[in-house]
Design a protein that fits this description.
Number of helices: 3
Largest sheet: 2 strands, antiparallel
Helix content: 25-40%
Order of helices and strands: EEHHH
Strand content: 25-35%
Length: 67
Amino acid sequence: MPGFTADLTLENENEYKVTITYDFEAMDVKKAEGMTYFKNNHLPELLKLTPSQFADNLINAGASEQK
């Protein structure tokens, strides 16, 4: 889907890293909302967040921050 990428990197045999990128200027959000993968992603709500708000939400949900 244009505007969305998901990259999986195997760090070692016990660890992997997933990098997901949303480009809301390129993504057809209405079309994405109807796709199984995006059903629980709440895309309209994501559009209202700044990148820092989005990152804060992930951290509050248990994600770890790497610099």
